Known about the structure:
By secondary structure, the chain is of the alpha/beta class. 30% of the residues lie in helices and 29% in strands. It is built from 6 helices and 9 strands; from the N terminus they run ββαβααβαβαββββα.
Amino acid sequence: MTIQVGDRIPAATLNVLKDGVQAISTDEIFKGRKAVLFSVPGAFTPTCSERHLPGYIEHYGEFTKRGIEVACIAVNDAFVMDAWGKAQHVPDGLMMLADGNGAFTQALGLEMDATRFGMGLRGKRFALYAEDGVVKKLAVEAPGEFKVSSAEAMLADVG
């Protein structure tokens, strides 16, 4: 079942690359904080690299001025997420989270089967806004679209 507004973010462990691969819990990311989590189907893929992540990089300062943490997640490993972050010049503080096996994405109910593209299990393109681990806004894109999960759309919705 897909997570809904009003639901608590499920407990899970993700990874980041910082002095080696480090585990980070969803509690560490969301507890006591305002946060936007946006998901991309894959690092280095066209829309993700040309529009989705760049929008959050461009507007990162606007989120932080509002006291909102920002995190990007993909069903990729921590090494790929780190390399993609470096290639895209992601600012310090914008978390690049790896959900290597897709367990967290599945717990959210936001996985997709991309095997016909040779990509296996991936996360749908979405963005959510949470306060203290409770989802306040959820924007899931229709297949092949990029509208409701953009940085601009989320800024307008959490304004």
